[in-house]
């Protein structure tokens, strides 16, 4: 499971290779209840996502582990 980091997190690549646990916390659009309750996923940062509006851009597989892919964009917590 992989993800890309947004500009504020990227820090000239210092975050590349780091692992984060990610949890869906809610919707960012009208899609109702996108989160899969209690699900978390651990991802490895492998890329930079310049201009991403959020913090982490999850791979399709990682996203689908914690939320309904139809939602497209979700709020997350990560640690």
Q: Note the main sheet.
A: 5 strands, mixed
Shape, please?
Answer: globular
Total strand segments: 5
Strand line-up across the major sheet? 4-1-3-2-5
Strand content: 35-45%
Unreliable stretches:
none
Can you characterise this structure?
This protein is mostly beta strands and 79 residues long. The protein has a 5-stranded mixed sheet. The chain is globular.
Keywords, please?
79 residues; 2 helices; globular
Blueprint (SSEs and pairs):
Blueprint: E1 2-5, H1 7-10, E2 19-27, E3 40-48, E4 56-58, H2 60-66, E5 74-78
Q: Quick summary of this structure?
A:
It is built from 2 helices and 5 strands, in the order βαβββαβ. With 79 residues, it is mainly β.
């Amino acid at each position: 499971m992989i993800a890309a980091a947004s500009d504020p997190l990227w820090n000239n690549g210092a975050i590349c290779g780091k692992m984060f646990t990610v949890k869906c916390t809610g919707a960012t659009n009208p899609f109702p209840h996108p989160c899969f309750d209690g699900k978390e996923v651990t991802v490895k940062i492998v890329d930079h996502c310049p201009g991403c509006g959020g913090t982490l851009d999850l791979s399709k597989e990682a996203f689908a582990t914690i939320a309904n892919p139809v939602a497209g964009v979700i709020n997350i917590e990560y640690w």
